[in-house]
Amino acid sequence: MSVLVNKNSKVIVQGFTGSEGTFHASQMIEFGTNVVGGVTPGKGGQSHLDRPVFNSVAEAVEKTGADVSIIFVPPAFAADAIMEAANAGIKVIIAITEGIPVKDMIIAKEYISQYDTTLIGPNCPGVITADGAKVGIMPGFIFKKGKIGIVSKSGTLTYEAADQVVKAGMGITTAIGIGGDPIIGTTTKEAVQLLMADDETEGIVMIGEIGGNLEAQAAEWIKEHGTKPVVGFIAGVTAPAGRTMGHAGAIVGGEDDTAEAKKRILRACGVHVVDSPAEIGKKMAEVLGVTA
Amino acid sequence: MNLHEYQGKSILESYGVAIQRGVVVDNVEEAVAKAKELSASTGTEWFVVKAQIHAGGRGKGTVEETGSHGVVLAKGIDKVEETVKGILGGHLETAQTNGVGKKVNKVLIAEDVYYPGESEPSEFYMSVLLDRANERNAIIYSTEGGMDIEAVAENTPHLIFKEEIDPRVGLQGFQARKIAFNLGLSGQAFKEMTKFVFSLYAAYEGADSSMFEINPVLKTSDNKIIAVDAKVTLDDNALYRHKAYAAMRDKTEEDPMEVEADEAGLNYVNLDGNVGCMVNGAGLAMATMDIIKLSGGNPANFLDVGGTADAERVEKAFRLILQDKNVEAILVNIFGGIVRCDRVAQGIVDAYKNMGEIPVPIIVRLQGTNAVEAKALIDASGLNVHSAVLLQEAADLVKSVLS
Description:
Chain B: InterPro entries: ATP-grasp_succ-CoA_synth-type (IPR013650), ATP_grasp_subdomain_1 (IPR013815), Succ-CoA_synthase_bsu_CS (IPR017866), SUCC_ACL_C (IPR005811), Succ_CoA_ligase-like_bsu (IPR005809), Succinyl-CoA_synth-like (IPR016102). Chain B: GO terms for molecular function: ATP binding; magnesium ion binding; succinate-CoA ligase (ADP-forming) activity; succinate-CoA ligase (GDP-forming) activity. The structure holds two protein chains of two kinds. By secondary structure, chain A is of the alpha/beta class. Chain A has helices at 19-31, 57-64, 75-87, 102-112, 156-167, 188-196, 214-225, 259-268, 280-288, and strands at residues 11-14, 35-39, 47-48, 51-54, 68-71, 92-95, 118-120, 126-129, 133-136, 145-152, 172-177, 203-209, 230-235, 272-273. Chain A has nine helices and 14 strands. In chain A, helix 5 packs across helix 9 (280-288). Chain A starts with 10 loop residues before the first strand and ends with a helix. At the A-B interface, helix 4 and helix 5 of A face helix 9 and helix 13 of B.
């Protein structure tokens, strides 16, 4: 098995005909993702990348049976796109868009809580299941099939971790980029829970950064319920307090959301924490007793 | 984006929040005339002159040139000119300015609101902010106003209250009443406070704020509730729908190098270390800063070049990093995904040649799509650039060039 997306997922692209949507949709199709169509209001009835374009998500779901949606809609309209997807019955919504106002996300997250749906992101690289489906913007070739799951707030740092894990001889099941915004759909803990329940996943890499308490929440859960080893890295030991470091959510507000404090909590909960981002793959191999 | 007190108060006033009234001046000549106009509408000839800088602790802070504090009471119109002269144009150092004085370009001349009357004035603390753990907005308030709220939280946490706002229905009347009761108010002051809370929350929501901190909220001797200070942060991602607020940005409050980077579309934060870095992606950029530290250096900056690391952007980034005279080495760390490493390598070579000489060693780590071709390209260029593929190799190179 794998989590969230696989080769049977029927994926639609919201913001299909825009430049981002077009580029990444074609990359996903090339990877082998089952992209069944897309949505661009006002362009329904047209064909794009040999797939049908619909005016609404509801229409796309009705005509294609889509159950996964990836969102490339510009920030001003992205929260609306998330709510539309949930309302239309999409089960996994992956929001790539960066820069959605916090006020819009508070409302969108509250609204979708009444539906049986999982939101990943926003401001994330998406989700990839090796040999299954890439629903995101990551370079697919790095994610060779294997037994390690990844949960991360960051894009390129996820690629870095995946590359190290693959080179250390283990490979990837599913990598989940949860996003770097203050309000996100799926938390670190929820993503870790998904991977703990996945038969194929034997170990989990958890990558966090300064700001908020998502990593600490996940660690507390791991301490009580964890059944597989978790290797953790927290970026931003050298980040100054009170400054936003690229991601809107990456800001040290108090004592508890510094990288050092988070690492302390993770270690106390049994997570194998590395200080150097160059040692993620090595540490996982060591914990699992794998030799490359 | 952070605002000045006077700007925050203008937003509050537009949402019907009662504020301590005042006038802003940027020169001494205007000060007395404007103060006279103010007293014509307020009826008081006592004024508080407040330095307008983006930092707290102004009242206890000191103006380097004159020794004046950053917030001073002027007991009479004849004292205004002298008081303004002591603050305006000087450099104000406070507990929050990291050891350097901030230039005071504007002062707010405000009415004195601590006048005697039927009851004692009292000060409260109130802020509205995003409670990240609960993913909703919350009003934080305390009976202990006018002092450092972190200290209150440390010493007397039972005096700090929190009211969460349900996003489905917004702030409700019972919540505003609860706040007013918990602050020990009754009669006219109680009514005024519930109104104050509603207006404050409306301003926070309406302006797409990340934080609205009012410290102190004052109950005057005649039972009015007013905002005496305002510390406001707006959500940068929402500025597109608030053009008037976006125009309030004061670039003189920001690091000039960060302003320059912002104009070039680079996400840059200036730090005080000796190793510059250029990275694609925010998480990897922070991780790169951390690995510099582990290799015996200190990061000189955070810099996310984003998805397009072409020659033009690389050159801009190099020039920015090299403006910092403390920089002894530069680490470029790019994980190529969609962006091909050989293109980035070509960009680095072109930028380097274009700039002539770069006075510090450069370590380039390119990994991902076409990483091998990229390393070959760098190695064949004949430039003073050390290339690496693995992150650990890059870390080791940083260590060796620093020693």
